[in-house]
Amino acid sequence: MNKRIAIVNDIGSLGGIEMMLLVLARELPRDRYTPVYLAPESGAMIEQMEALGVEVIRAPRPRWWSVSFYIGQRKVFNPLALLYDGWVTLRYIGALRRALRVGRIDLVHSSGMVSQICAGVAARSLGLPHVAQVQDIIGSRLIRRWYGALLGRLTDRIAAISTAVATADLPIAKTQIVPNVVDLDRWQGGHLTRAALSLSDTQFVIGMVGRLTPWKGQRVFLAAARALLESGGQADRCRFVLVGDDSIGSVAGYRAELEADAQRGVLRDRVQLLGRRAD
Predict the structure, then answer these.
(1) Which of 17, 13, 70 is nearest to 42 (CA)?
(2) How far apart are CA 106 and CA 81, in angstroms?
(3) DSSP class of residue 192?
(4) What pLDDT score does 242 carry?
């Protein structure tokens, strides 16, 4: 019997994990599985899923309030936010639960912290198996342990993308390492050339691909590039490219900071920020 799999994630735009979910939706054998996308918001993910012939059910994710606000320079706790956030979270879990029933779902696949918790509760309430795909390591060890314990209760299996993620306080008995996939067919032909970037065949190109956000480490990349160039010798042949944009979870001024840093000292004219690319 064909199994219907709900794909639940946190955002409607295209990030790294969303690209992996599109590959998953496309590559699932349709004679055995039917992917159903539970869309948290409007955006490119709905368009991409529909282009793949995936059924889309809207389950709008709420916007939570911050639990603090500022009065002048003083940060003040906002108790009303806790009440509001708890209420809209329960409503979201209810919306996911209804979507799972309407979609006649047999198994739930979630990615992203919010989805893993909310979809996990919804799946448990309906007696559905739940697989969580975990790709990040939470910085705070206390929160990481709490989150790992919660996933242990809300999942049947956990797919971790690496050994580092799998060993970051996730329940060992339920966790299996499943690396992210790279669709090599996408890169056959039409790719960016050295000539288009004004790079010669003798230059050694070092790149970093990822969303422009501080925790991804672009500052570290530029610092390493500067140290390498300052070492002299053959390092002068090196050129550097940053691929990615700040359309998701952007930090004000971060891209401008990177662009300014890339024009200082030995990095000047040796670093290119290419933005988001589809090639």
Answers:
(1) 13
(2) 35
(3) P
(4) 94
**Segments in the chain forming alpha helices (H):** 16-27, 44-51, 79-102, 113-126, 141-154, 163-166, 218-230, 254-261
Residue type, 40: P
What is the value of pTM for the model shown? 0.82
Outline where 158-253 has alpha helix (H): 163-166, 218-230
Longest CA–CA span in the chain (Å) reads 65
* Rounded CA separation 27/227 (Å): 42
Q: Determine how many CB atoms are found less than 10 A away from the CB of residue 165.
A: 17
106-146 pLDDT, tens per residue? 999 999 999 999 999 999 999 999 999 999 898 889 999 99
**Which residue type occupies 148?**
G
- Distance from C-alpha of 17 to C-alpha of 10, rounded to nearest angstrom: 10
Residue 144 and residue 138 in contact, taking contact as beta carbons nearer than 8 Å = yes
| Residue 215 burial by Cβ neighbours in a 10 Å radius (0-12, 13-18, 19+) | exposed
Q: Cα angle vertex 123, ends 96, 97, to 5°?
A: 25
Tokens of 186: 């996408």
3-state class (DSSP) for residue 164: helix
Report the alpha-carbon distance of residue 86 to residue 225 in Å, rounded: 45
**Pairwise CA distance, residues 138 & 163, whole Å:** 15
Q: What is the mean pLDDT of each run of 10 residues along the chain (279 residues)?
A: 93 87 93 96 94 96 82 77 92 97 97 95 98 92 94 96 94 94 68 81 91 89 94 90 81 88 92 85
Query: How far is residue 207's CA from residue 4's CA, in Å, rounded to a whole number?
Result: 39
